């Protein structure tokens, strides 16, 4: 599982697990905050569908944290003001980059989160499908 997938799972359905994982690493290793949690703005790009040109749709408030664990750097970025989650994601990122032994225990947790996210997305899709209008069944 790559970094983007891990981060998406932890943000979407695994916030509690992310904090627990970060605590596990924090209790075992020394964590140096290279950049403590801080807020910033990020420009959001969007591709216009007709001409396929990029334009900036606006800005999004993010919280970013950078940590260092045993000469391994990790970064955590989340939308809105969530310093705890941002820090947890940075610690988890560093742990996976450094291939710490604890990460082997997290693989089943990540697989469970993946199934939870898929189930949640299916439920959303089903609720949308229920409200769709079936024009081919409407009488004229």
Approximate helicity band: 40-55%
- The CA-CA distance between the termini, in Å, is 52 Å
Q: Whole-number radius of gyration?
A: 19 Å
Q: Name the average pLDDT.
A: 91
Structural class by SSE content: alpha+beta
**Tally of individual helices:** 4
Q: pLDDT under 50 segments (min length 5)?
A: none
- Judging from the principal axes of the Cα atoms, what is the shape? globular
Strand ordering within the main sheet: 1-2-3
Number of strands: 3
The biggest beta sheet is recorded as: 3 strands, antiparallel
List the secondary-structure elements in sequence, H or E.
HHEEEHH
- How large is the share of residues in beta strands? 25-35%
SSE topology sketch:
Layout lengths: L2 H10 L2 H14 L3 E16 L6 E16 L2 E8 L3 H15 L4 H30 L9
Antiparallel strand pairs: 1-2, 2-3
Helix pairs in contact: 1-3, 1-4, 2-3
């Amino acid at each position: 599982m790559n970094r983007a997938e891990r981060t998406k799972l932890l943000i979407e359905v695994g916030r509690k697990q992310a904090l627990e994982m970060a605590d596990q690493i924090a209790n075992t290793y020394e964590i140096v905050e290279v950049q403590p949690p801080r807020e910033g703005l990020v420009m959001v790009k969007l591709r216009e569908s007709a001409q396929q040109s990029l334009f900036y749709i606006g800005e999004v408030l993010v919280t970013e944290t950078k940590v260092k664990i045993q000469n391994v750097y990790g970064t955590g970025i989340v939308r809105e003001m969530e310093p705890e989650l941002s820090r947890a994601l940075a610690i988890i990122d560093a742990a996976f980059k450094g291939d710490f032994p604890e990460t082997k225990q997290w693989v089943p947790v990540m697989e469970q989160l993946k199934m939870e996210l898929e189930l949640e997305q299916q439920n959303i899709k089903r609720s949308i499908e229920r409200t769709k209008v079936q024009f081919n069944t409407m009488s004229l």
